[in-house]
Design goal:
The chain has 97 residues and is an all-alpha fold. The protein has helices spanning 2-33, 35-41, 48-67, 69-82, 88-96. The chain is built from five helices and no strands.
């Protein structure tokens, strides 16, 4: 019962983090596309290529957290709390594949 509740909580947090990463990706895309947004949010020394890097990073994080949230939250909390049959680092890598 407790582990199911914890797994649901982890899944919710991953989905919220996915939304936050998607919003950050959109902010960087808007700053890259619209000079006035870039000027209001970032210093003039902020290079354009850094927006592209963070668009890729935030997009990847949003996709992973949105699509793999069920696989991450299904086994990871029980492995962390109870030691599980598999060490947490191996469980995490196995369920992302």
């Amino acid at each position: 019962m407790f582990l199911a509740w914890l797994a649901d909580g982890v899944k919710l947090l991953l989905r919220l983090a996915s939304v936050a990463a998607a919003v950050a990706m959109l902010v960087h895309a808007a700053a890259l596309a619209v000079p006035s947004i870039n000027a209001s949010l970032y210093s003039p020394a902020y290079p354009w290529w850094r927006h592209i890097v963070f668009i890729a990073i935030n997009g990847t994080l949003a996709w992973i957290m949105a699509t793999h949230s069920a696989r991450i939250s299904a086994k990871w909390p029980s492995s962390v709390i109870m030691g599980g049959p598999t060490p947490p680092w191996q469980c995490h890598l196995r369920h992302l594949a």
